[in-house]
Amino acid sequence: MKSIVAGRVAASTTEFIELTLGTPLDLWLGVEGESEMERAAREDAARDILADNLDFIDRVSQVAAQAIEAHAPELFNVTLLQARRRPYRGGVAA
Questions:
Q1: What does pTM read for this prediction?
Q2: Which residues contact 21 (CB under 8 A, 6 or more apart)?
Q3: Strand extents, DSSP E, the chain
Q4: Do residues 3 and 16 make contact, with C-beta atoms less than 8 angstroms apart?
Q5: What CA–CA distance (Å, rounded) separates 26 from 88?
Q6: Residue 9 in contact with residue 3, Cβ under 8 Å?
């Protein structure tokens, strides 16, 4: 099944999210090994995007809801474990 966002085919889940949000995930999640200066610059850019796009949080919520809906069987695949009962053999523990 193809995921098409804004006329583009997303090749991966990450690309789908980035196309839907219009920003790279690294902007919000950070990059391993980034310096304090890089982190501060990234956070400033993220704040500017949020200030300029008041509907951004609604779009993020919509993407999260779509992902949950699409992957609900995997996300909520809970296997119930039954406790095995050992038969009573009588006697007294020493």
A1: 0.53
A2: 56, 59, 60, 63
A3: 3-5, 8-10
A4: yes
A5: 58
A6: yes
Helix, strand, or coil (residue 44): helix
What's the chain's length in residues?
A: 94
Report whether 59 contacts 46 (CB < 8 A): no
CA angle 29/34/35 to nearest 5° reads 130
pLDDT tens track of the chain, all 94 residues? Answer: 456 655 677 778 788 778 877 888 899 889 999 999 999 999 999 899 889 888 888 888 887 888 777 777 766 665 655 555 666 666 665 5
Could you tell me which residues come within 8 angstroms of residue 34 by beta carbon, excluding any fewer than 6 positions away? 42
Determine contact, residues 30/43, Cβ cutoff 8 Å. Answer: no
Contact in structure between 49 and 56 (CB atoms under 8 Å): yes
Give Cα 54 to chain centroid, integer Å.
Answer: 21
Residue with tokens 């690294």: 26
